[in-house]
Specification:
CATH topology: Purple Acid Phosphatase, chain A, domain 2
Oligomer: single chain
Shape: globular
Helix content: 25-40%
Number of helices: 5
CATH architecture: 4-Layer Sandwich
Distance between the termini: 24 Å
Radius of gyration: 17 Å
Order of helices and strands: EHEHEEEEHHHEEEEE
Number of strands: 11
CATH class: Alpha Beta
Strand order of the largest sheet: 4-3-2-1-10-11
CATH superfamily: Metallo-dependent phosphatases
């Protein structure tokens, strides 16, 4: 079997590599492969839940033109209430692929900040709520999950969760750091993101092909 794995496009952010997202979708359609989108595909925190700017409608059309499974992240949990991709949106799932058991979820509910993000899921990503969290973080030294100081802890927590559920593969997003890692009989995979950085100027994603994982750039 062959799949495209993509996460954290953050469509509507100025630093999103929209050209990379289009390339990713085109390649998946040409290959005729199913795509597993693993959260934060959109970045709509403070706007009404039914709003996505018209300038992104062509990218949405590209996304809806592929055969996908959509996992929900902490920046796009509004998608459950918007009739764009809703029929195929899930918070987490377990799939059996080529005889291997996969745990698939975005990752914001994994690790030491899981309680915080779970609370945000309950109360919503409202502007006031997030500003309150930022105010607290400045005074307590709290750091958001996904920063470099947290990467190793996050990866190990994801692997531990996979082991707990008897999974062979754990597929996450959230950290924006592309990674394919083996540990204790579990393969941890993270396709990275479409956010442009000095280290990763182009969108990254992963192709799964008959038991093997390949990290790719959308250029």
């Amino acid at each position: 079997m062959r799949f495209y794995l993509g996460s954290d496009f953050h469509i509507s952010r100025d630093d999103c590599d929209l050209d990379g997202v289009r390339i990713f979708c085109e390649r998946a359609k040409i290959d005729g492969c199913k795509v597993i989108l693993n959260g934060d595909i959109f970045d709509v925190l403070y706007e009404p839940v039914d709003y996505i700017g018209s300038e992104y409608q062509d990218v949405i059309r590209e996304l809806t033109g592929i055969n996908y499974l959509y996992m929900i992240g902490n920046h796009d949990n509004f998608i459950q209430r918007v009739p764009i991709l809703t029929p195929w949106a899930y918070p987490s799932t377990v799939l059996y692929i080529d005889g291997k058991k996969w745990l698939i979820e975005h990752g914001h509910l994994i690790g030491k900040y899981a309680c915080l993000f779970a609370t945000m899921d309950i109360f919503g990503n409202s502007y006031r709520f997030r500003e309150m969290v930022r105010w607290i973080s400045k005074r307590t030294g709290f750091q958001w999950a996904g920063r470099k100081s947290d990467e190793a802890q996050f990866e190990q927590a994801a692997i531990n969760k996979a082991m707990l559920h008897g999974c062979d593969v754990v597929y996450c997003g959230h950290t924006h750091v592309p990674k394919i890692r083996e540990f204790g009989g579990v393969t941890y995979v993270n396709p990275g993101s479409a956010i442009k950085t000095k280290e990763y100027p182009n969108m990254t994603y992963i192709i799964y092909d008959n038991g093997r994982f390949f990290l790719e750039e959308a250029v």
